[in-house]
Amino acid sequence: MDKSLNEIGKLRNEMKVGFIELENQLQSNNDSLQKKIQETSQLTIEAMERFSKKVEVGFIAVEDALEND
Prior knowledge:
This protein is mainly alpha-helical. It has one helix and no strands. The N and C termini lie far apart (100 Å).
């Protein structure tokens, strides 16, 4: 009986360690994903700003062309 309880205790401790390792891995993955989301968001904002400037330049060119006709 004591041997069975001892085995159960060992398994319980192994499960605790496993759950802690799993929780740490999930937190690490979450942190990594958050960083990638921030980087992607920043790149998207920068790309939109560049595109917006190009569109603005295009509108100015069209306005100039229409005024010169």
